[in-house]
Here is the input.
Amino acid sequence: MAMLLLGSDWLIRGGSGIARKFHIPVIVIGLTIVSMGTSLPELLVSLFAALKGNSDIAMGNVVGSNIVNILLILGLSAIIRRLTVQKNTTYAEIPITLGTALLLTLMGVMSADSVSQTSRMGRVHGIILLVLFGLFLYYLVWMTRKSRNHEVDIESTPEYPSKPPMLLVGMLVAGIAFLAWGADLCVNNAVKIAVSLDASETLIGLTLVAAGTSLPELFTSVVATIRKENDIAIGNIVGSNIFNILFILGTSTSIHPIRFSVVMISDMWVMSATSLLLFVLVFLGKKHSLGRLEGLIFLLTYAAYLYFLIQRG
Here is the structure.
């Protein structure tokens, strides 16, 4: 936990500093370097779980993490401080998050086998997801180039421009390393405890592993919220959710097909509904923002989902 806290602080300081130093929109840093850095645990867990044949953990990790990211992490962040969401994020990145969630859900539904009670994602699915991830990266490059036409005020936060670029890069890399190491320790020990209590693989993947691998996102977004870095707090979650589905599952299924229980499809629908809830609340929220009311709605929804998972076993 100490590593996660220290790592998230360095990641935010380094990422924000680099963004302002090189006139890159902070939201782009949040959607790319920060979100991908905090998603390293999900990538490693899902990849190794798929290779070892623990497909329910591989899929449950991604689906559960995306639910945790929005309901728990954004919920806590919004309660700490009102999060203002940029227009581009409201009308582009959040809908992309919803679209990727629905796409994964439809892939699971269309691949379901009623006889074996399993669903399968193979290399074709993986390639489709990776191609879409490439298009998403192209969109981010386009957005960065577009922003270069506007003046960026780097003097508004003189703390970051005063640091040398190499120091900022060092803080960023060290932050990611500490996040990955801390999350690995938390996840491994949480899974060992759950296994000793005879919990099912699906339940472990959707709860302990998903929440554990989302610890970097949790610490990063909460610390970013406290530091009034709204674009990193929001971009981290939205970017992580897109990265989890398009790149992590795309890579995992391209290397090794994943076969998982059809029970997971209901959780995929929850993931899609969660993304839709985020879009609706941001769209209807005061000046496209998330406040304490929206945060409370997220947290209560997550509590209800946890109750459902425990009852289902």
Summary: The longest strand covers residues 118-121. The chain has a mean pLDDT of 82. The CA atoms of residues 20 and 154 lie 5 Å apart. Residues 2-312 form a domain with the A middle domain of Talin 1 fold (CATH 1.20.1420.30).
